[in-house]
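sry for the spam today, last one i promise. struct tokens for design, 265 residues
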């Protein structure tokens, strides 16, 4: 069994639509979906931020005893090539603690590398699905990088291809439990897009905000309305890419496992 761990409902919509799922019991601050077919992964949504992601991963490992963990979700491009809807397959995940004001004085950053078999399945999946993709480091930060300047700094100084707020926590919890893992994300915003501050939901749950929250935000920041409308379109594109990827990933993994010779007793 594969467990796919994400943060937000809107990131998972493409995956849920592509399979046959029912809601599963989960702690009240998480959401879990159980597939009705083994061709799809269990989906667990933690909400935003490393603390939530780590708790959800530990719970999912205890609850489902998965053979592997796949971290998925939206990410921010930190270099000029990744575009919205592109898939980023993490070659490594890097933890960059603290606030942006502290990043420049961090002497050493923790990093982890994914399982090679899962990595091969992910690389095969993007080829099968015909998705544009990038293979490189993903950096996990405590606060979303919303400005072009910060995103560029992460790309140049940390050499990250993309940034998020959860993947290192998922990888670390899986690593500690001895469960193979990989990280795949879909680009929500490109490096040069100045993201409205309302998108930063670190610490919040997986459910989407209600329309009233956006109405209140736009009434105070009317100039951000075009950017918010663009983000809505981009989130649909990114979620659709994740749905296409996940279907192809499960097919690729099944084929890869099936092609491996049986071990001798």
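last one done:
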């Amino acid at each position: 069994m594969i467990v796919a761990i994400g943060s937000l409902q809107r990131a998972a919509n493409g995956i849920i639509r592509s399979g046959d799922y029912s809601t599963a019991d989960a702690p009240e601050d998480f959401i879990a979906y159980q597939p009705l077919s083994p061709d799809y992964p269990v989906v667990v949504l933690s909400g935003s931020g490393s603390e939530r992601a780590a708790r959800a991963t530990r719970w999912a490992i205890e609850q489902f005893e998965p053979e592997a963990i796949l971290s998925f979700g939206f990410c921010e491009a930190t270099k000029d090539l990744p575009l919205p809807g592109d898939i980023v397959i993490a070659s490594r995940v890097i933890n960059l603690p603290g606030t942006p004001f502290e990043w420049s004085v961090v002497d050493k950053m923790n990093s982890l590398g994914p399982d090679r078999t899962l990595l091969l399945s992910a690389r095969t999946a993007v080829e099968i699905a015909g998705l544009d993709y990038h293979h490189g480091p993903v950096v996990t930060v405590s606060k979303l990088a919303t400005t072009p300047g910060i995103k560029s700094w992460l790309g140049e100084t940390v050499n990250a291809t993309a940034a998020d707020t959860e993947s290192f926590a998922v990888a670390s919890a899986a690593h500690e439990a001895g469960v193979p893992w990989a990280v795949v994300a879909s680009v929500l915003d490109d490096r040069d897009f100045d993201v409205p501050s309302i998108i930063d939901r670190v610490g919040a749950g997986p459910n989407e905000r209600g329309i009233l929250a956006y109405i209140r935000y736009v009434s105070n920041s009317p100039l951000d309305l075009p950017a918010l409308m663009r983000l809505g379109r981009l989130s649909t594109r990114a979620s659709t890419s994740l749905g296409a990827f996940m279907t192809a990933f499960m097919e690729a993994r099944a084929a890869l496992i099936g092609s491996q010779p049986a071990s001798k007793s």
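Strands lie at 2-6, 21-24, 31-35, 42-45, 68-77, 87-96, 110-112, 133-141, 162-164, 181-189. ok im logging off now
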